[in-house]
Amino acid sequence: MQLNLSTWCEVKDYLKTQKDIIIPIGSMEQHGPMGFIGTDSICPEIVASGISKTQNVLIAPTIPVGMSQHHLAFPGSLTLRPTTMIAVIKDIILSLTGHGFTHLFFLNGHGGNVASIKTAFSEIYAEHSLSNKPSSVHLDLYNWYDGKRVEEIENKYFKDVNGSHATPSEISLSFYAHPDAVKKAELSPRVAPTNQFRDCFDFQNNFPDGRIGSDSSLASIAVGKELFEAAVQDALEIYKQFINNKP
Length: 247
Fold this sequence. Notes:
The chain is α/β, with parallel strands linked by helices. The chain has helices at about 10-15, 40-50, 80-100, 115-130, 150-155, 170-175, 200-205, 220-245, and strands at about 20-25, 60, 105-110, 140-145. Helix 2 crosses helix 6 and helix 3 packs across helix 4.
């Protein structure tokens, strides 16, 4: 059940029996010569869609732009400031909890979002603590790529060249989601370097084509299908633990 395709009447009826919702969240940033700019939003979105086919749960519209300042040297990348992102997440949480949702499960696709999402959660809980009002809201964050089943597939096909950005795993999953848009490119070097970075200029100097430690050429729709099925199982397992752990 998609929130953006529902009427307010349907949501009202949903809230009579359920108080949980899944919120995909990602980013809009370069993913090397082969990866879609929307990779980090596409991945949690398709995993959330997969969950909704096995579980009666409302899926919120994907939050498509995240904290990606370090990618701004590459055309097409978009970012929110950390403070802006925190404010956006808080407003979305307050909008939903104001209607009666109590269990909000953020399904994330971008590592750079984690700090801001967790800070937004802390801000929500702090407001309740400081106002001496018990909170009924339960917030959880899960990265689609953190599951054991996903890790097994990554190790099977990519081993030590999955890297940490523009990975063949995330690109494969996004290719599976949008097979008509698959990209090909010559990669040099085939396996990208690894290093630390600060701002977008530092990032581009260290990683000229946008990849970190990855061999994106290994990405395929077939592996993407396996990753999709694994990611849905992993996320569904964590999601069920979350909604069943009620006070």
